[in-house]
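dumping this here so i dont lose it
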């Protein structure tokens, strides 16, 4: 029974913690203090619910308890003495609401608070690593240990990042608000980058024994969906959500039962999640509609979602519209010029016009300094050389790629490809 209650508390916390923290942060104007107060409410739940049972509206219970903790803290705090009457009155007024009103408040006004929390956690004043850790902590409800395990980083390192991030936000006097005008565009880009980084780490793990970490994909999707619901007019928000939905649809097909990687063209498409594909295609339509309404071209996330949609619409690998994918990568390269985009474009060109055409483009990237330690460059080059029958050269490329990757599953896969070259030489 106690174990069941604790699982329920964990599930409630994952669902409600971001709303509770966001609401408290608006009141106390301090993200660190808001999280501390929310954690106090969680501790109270762990102490109370095993005996009293899970309340009918656990989210409202956590919110009320956290606000009571905030009220107690404000009454004691000398540094808020000049604002105590104002803030105390605000909290007492909310606590005196009838229960139905509090319940409905959980589904309505907190939208603005959540949006403020997202923009605060992803503020550019923080390093990228700090933004990622703080977002997973505040919006994903993950513990420090869970974040550390997800990124294969020592727990004290993650704890330090989170503590420093909160301190930096406080010292920089970052306002708990949604930016406006030109600043909104800049800050939105930072928010989307963080969500995208979290998803990508889950989709293709940088290091470790597992090729994927689906839990990170789920967290990124959850935050992305929240943001899309709060920023309905932003094309790139829907573009990123569409991209993640479609990419996530392939998760179950990307590995064998033993955990070995299965490349896109070799995947069993019957295992792709059709619900996620439909959601992704709908999000892409919303991104395209928002762009048309604003009279702007599709941004990088929407273009990548359009590329993913080409794969999702193909019933079989040989039905993929590679010419359109190559064209979309060309468009992406004009929006966000990048050697990595060019490498992906070369793969599409090779599929549309043959491996020789793709290799010609890849060879232009060999001297690119930013790709010198990027394992996918020799991996792609090795694959194209293999298709052209140049087995010895291909083997050397696969061996170099295996040396560069830090993911054990991927290293094993690349070593097998190198061995295949040796056997067929």
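and the seq i came up w/
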């Amino acid at each position: 029974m106690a174990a069941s209650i604790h699982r329920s508390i964990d599930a409630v916390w994952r669902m409600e913690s971001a709303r509770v923290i966001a609401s408290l942060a608006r009141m106390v104007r301090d993200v660190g203090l808001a999280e501390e107060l929310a954690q106090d409410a969680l501790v109270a739940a762990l102490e109370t619910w095993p005996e009293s049972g899970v309340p009918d509206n656990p989210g409202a219970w956590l919110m009320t308890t956290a606000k009571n903790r905030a009220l107690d803290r404000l009454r004691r705090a000398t540094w808020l003495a000049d604002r105590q009457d104002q803030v105390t009155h605000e909290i007492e007024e909310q606590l005196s609401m009838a229960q139905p009103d509090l319940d409905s408040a959980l589904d309505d006004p907190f939208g603005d608070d959540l949006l403020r929390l997202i923009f605060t956690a992803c503020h550019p004043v923080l390093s990228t690593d700090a933004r990622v850790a703080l977002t997973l902590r505040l919006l994903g409800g993950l513990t420090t240990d869970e974040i550390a395990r997800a990124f294969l980083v020592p727990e004290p390192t993650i704890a330090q990042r989170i503590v420093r991030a909160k301190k930096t936000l406080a010292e920089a006097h970052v306002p708990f608000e949604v930016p406006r005008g030109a600043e909104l565009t800049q800050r939105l880009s930072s928010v989307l980058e963080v969500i995208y980084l979290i998803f990508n780490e889950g989709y293709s793990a940088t290091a470790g024994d597992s090729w994927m970490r689906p839990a990170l994909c789920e967290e990124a999707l959850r935050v992305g969906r929240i943001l899309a619901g709060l920023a309905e007019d932003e094309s790139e928000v829907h573009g990123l959500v569409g991209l993640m939905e479609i990419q996530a649809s392939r998760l179950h097909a990307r590995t064998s039962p033993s955990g070995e990687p299965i490349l896109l063209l070799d995947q069993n498409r019957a295992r792709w999640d059709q619900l996620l594909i439909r959601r992704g295609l709908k999000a892409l339509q919303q991104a395209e509609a928002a762009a048309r309404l604003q009279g702007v071209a599709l941004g990088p996330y929407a273009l990548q979602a359009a590329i993913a949609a080409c794969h999702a619409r193909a019933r079989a690998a040989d039905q993929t519209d590679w010419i359109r994918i190559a064209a979309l990568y060309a468009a992406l390269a004009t929006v966000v010029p990048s050697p990595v985009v060019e490498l992906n474009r070369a793969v599409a060109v090779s599929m549309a016009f043959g491996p020789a055409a793709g290799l010609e483009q890849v060879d232009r990237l060999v001297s690119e300094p930013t790709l010198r330690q990027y394992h996918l460059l020799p991996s792609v080059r090795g694959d194209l050389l293999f298709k052209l029958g140049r087995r010895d050269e291909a083997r050397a490329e696969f061996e170099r790629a295996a040396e560069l990757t830090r993911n054990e599953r991927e290293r094993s896969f690349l070593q097998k490809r190198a061995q295949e070259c040796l056997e067929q030489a």
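The first helix runs from residue 2 to 28.
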